[in-house]
Structure formats: structure tokens, C-alpha cells
Specification:
single chain, 4 helices, alpha+beta, about 200 residues
Length: about 200
């Protein structure tokens, strides 16, 4: 089996980011973005997807966390796109309905080749630590667009802002874990009636 690993670096005037993603890992993570809550979310992303994930990011946090969070989404999306390659033999679709106490979040993903994020999250608090809660959706948009995946994230229930965002990250990564899984019946086939994704 070809290794499904990618390392992507991106440097701008606002951020300097390096991401390494191994789709066939065991959930080993090394995360440092300077944004504590975001580190917690990315750690959950790696662990619950069973992806080995390293994210090292330096951003203009003296402004706010927006550029750092969005740009990590861009680079992680690019790493996923590179690691998955031609998508031969993958399951393609994945979904997760994830409970976290009073919160319930649905995530569904399709390696469609058409990047798009459709999110419906109603987060009561404006901020958790130094993380603006609206950045959760910004991350998912940047990630899905750059990974060329269709991503739906929908809050079915929830009142606690921490729970809503954490359940969202965990639901998305568990849906991804399912979608990138290799289906032995598909062997080297691309899972599309078109023959390409």
C-alpha cells in the first residue's frame, strides 16, 4: 500500500505553518498554534480520526486568531488532498452523529472533488479562551475548500459552546476516518460512476 502521508508548508506575511498528516496513523499528535482551544480541537481531530497529525503554526496573534485558524484550515485541507491522492480504493463517503453531553452534532463528508462546506452551528458564547467561536466555521470552510471535499456540519442539539465546537471537530474527523478507509472490494478503483473524482 502506498503511504498516505503529506507535509505541506505555507508562509505568508500573516502566518508560517507546517502540517504533516498521516491518514493511516494511530492518532499521535503534535500541535502548537499559540491558540490553546484550537490546539485542543486539532488534538481531538488527530486522535479521533486515528490520523497522525503535526501542526506547527506561528501567526499574528497580536491581531487575533483569525489568520492562524483559517490558514491552518487551508494547509490541513491541502495536506488531506495530497495524502488521499487519486482516491483509489477509498470508501469516499463518511458520516458521524456525535453526542457530547447535551450536544449532538451531525457531520457528513464526500470526497467529491468539489470543495464546499455547509455548516449550521449555533454557538452561544462569542469566545472560548482566546478563540473566537465563529472561527470554528471559518476553519471548516477553509479546510473543506482546500481538500476538495463536500462537508456538512449540523448542530442537532447543544447549549454549551465548548461542547458544540468539540463535538463538531470530533464528528468531522470521525466522518473523515470512515471516508478515507480503504475498501478491499474496491481495490484500485475510483469510487465514482464517472471513473474520476
Amino acid at each position: 500500500m502506498t503511504e498516505r502521508v503529506a507535509t505541506i508548508s505555507r508562509t505568508t506575511k500573516e502566518t508560517d505553518i507546517q502540517v504533516t498528516l498521516n491518514l493511516d496513523g494511530t492518532g499521535v499528535t503534535s500541535i502548537n498554534t499559540g491558540v490553546g482551544f484550537f490546539d485542543h480541537m486539532l488534538d481531538a481531530f488527530g486522535r479521533h480520526g486515528a490520523f497522525d497529525l503535526s501542526v506547527q503554526a506561528k501567526g499574528d496573534l497580536q491581531v487575533d486568531a483569525h489568520h492562524t485558524v483559517e490558514d491552518v484550515g487551508i494547509v490541513l485541507g491541502q495536506a488531506l488532498k495530497q495524502a488521499i491522492g487519486e482516491k483509489r480504493g477509498i470508501t469516499r463517503y463518511g458520516q458521524s452523529l456525535l453526542p457530547m453531553d447535551e450536544t449532538l452534532v451531525l457531520a457528513a463528508v464526500d470526497f467529491s472533488g468539489r470543495g464546499g462546506c455547509f455548516a449550521d452551528l449555533r454557538i452561544p458564547a462569542e469566545q472560548i479562551g482566546n478563540f473566537d467561536t465563529e472561527l470554528g466555521v471559518e476553519f471548516f470552510i477553509a479546510f473543506a475548500t482546500n481538500a476538495d471535499i463536500t462537508l456538512h456540519v449540523r448542530q442537532m442539539a447543544g447549549e454549551n459552546s465548548h461542547h458544540i465546537l468539540e463535538a463538531s471537530f470530533k464528528a468531522v474527523t470521525r466522518a473523515l476516518k470512515q471516508a478515507v478507509a480503504l475498501d478491499p472490494r474496491m481495490a484500485d478503483q475510483v469510487p465514482s460512476t464517472k471513473g474520476a473524482l
